[in-house]
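Hey team,

Filing this mostly as a record. A colleague (T.K.) asked me to run one chain through the structure pipeline before their review meeting, and I want the input and output archived in the tracker in case anyone asks later how it was produced. No errors, nothing strange. Just documentation.

Input sequence:
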Amino acid sequence: MKILYICTHNRCRSILSEAITNHVAGDKIIARSAGSQPAGVVHPLSLQYLTEAGIPTDGLTSQSWDEFEAFAPDVVVTVCDSAAGETCPVWFGKSVRVHWGLSDPSKLAGSDEQKAEAFRACISEITERVNQLLPLAEKSVTPEQLRAELAALGAQ
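Output structure:
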């Protein structure tokens, strides 16, 4: 199964999702991330807290969704509300699309400890969803069944 995580700026939540999915799922799921208006850089705290969690950060970059048509994802997951409302490229029409709204830890204005807690909570939430997603990657399901099961994961 191939998943493309989308967030408008592709600097935090989608990056976290890509790294965690590739780390947890091994070769069962191939994950990438992109944005409609990529920031061009990964948020430094995303890298810091992925590293703290023992998740590799090599190769993580902020990039445009225009670069992923050849990737042909089975699933496109939007992780921010603004990306969920954007008009997606036509080639996404072949993919199952779902929305997993995640709080943006990079926008938290607070102490360093509050920011750390927000990143750790986001990483934990994504890890839990990916662990629940793994059995789906091994099943043969219709796009409609996959959409329903993925939407249920995002609603948790």
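Quick notes for T.K.: Helices lie at 13-25, 44-52, 81-84, 112-137, 143-154. The chain has five helices and four strands.
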